[in-house]
Structures are given as structure tokens and as C-alpha cells.
Amino acid sequence: MATFGKKLRECREAKGFSQSKLAQELGLHHSIIGRYERDEAKPTIDVVKGMSKALNTTVGYLLGETSDALMIKDPVMLERFQEISNLPDEDKKCVYSLLDAYLAKNKLKALIK
Predict the structure, then answer these.
(1) Which of 16, 60, 94, 97 has its CA 20 to 30 A from that of 87?
(2) CB-based contacts of 54: which residues, under 8 Å, 6+ apart?
(3) Tens-place pLDDT, residues 17-65
(4) Within a domain: residue 54?
């Protein structure tokens, strides 16, 4: 299983950030990012929250709560899904129907090309 440091590095590199750039985004010294990536130091939960936001991932992913490569890393999309999960069942069915129709339309469009 990947360590916090390995997941942090993977996400940072996928975003195209240097250690210095990520540190700047978080208001930290760049050397601490290297220490986190080498698993020599553990960040506070507030720092992990900031990292997840800056890297478009989730706290759960960075902390190893999930290793699912298909998890939603886009915080805007994740927020939408959380809002949908709070809707009454009838409203959820409407949203799912709309999404199904849109996805089917795009699949059909891709087949025609």
C-alpha cells in the first residue's frame, strides 16, 4: 500500500507542481514538502485539507482510506454528488434520469463519429 508521502508526490506531480509551488500554495517552506514525501514528517489535518484542495484530490485518498483509482478527485464534482445524496429519493431519481440521458447521448455521439 502506498504511503502518505508516495500519494502526495503522485498527486503533486500529476498536478504539475514542484515541491516549491505546492509549499507556496500552502504557505509552507518547500523543504517540509520533501519531508512529507519521504514520510519523515506528518502534516496536521489542516495541512492535509489544504493539500487535497490544491491537488484536486481528497483527504481520504491522501490518507490511504481509499486506493480506488477511479475515485472522484475533482472537488467540485464531489461536492455536487454530496448535494445529490442529500436530496429526497424522488429528486435523486430525476437527477439520475437526467444524467443517464446525457451520458447516453454522448455515447451515441461518440459511436457516430
Answers:
(1) 60
(2) 15, 17, 22, 25, 26
(3) 999 999 999 999 999 999 999 999 999 999 999 998 898 888 888 888 8
(4) yes
85: containing domain: 75-112
CATH classification of the domain holding 29: 1.10.260.40
- Do 13 and 58 sit in the same domain of this protein? yes
Torsion sign across C-alpha atoms 7, 8, 11, 13: negative
CA 111/CA 31 separation, integer angstroms: 49
- Number of folded domains in the chain? 2
**Residue 70: predicted pLDDT:** 42
Please report where in the chains the cell 445524496 appears, as a residue.
Answer: 85
Q: Which three cell numbers stand for residue 26?
A: 500552502
Query: Does 34 share its domain with 11?
Result: yes
pLDDT at residue 71 is higher than 60: no
**d(C-alpha 66, C-alpha 52), whole Å:** 14
C-alpha cell at 53: 484542495
Residue 69 falls within a domain, yes or no?
A: no
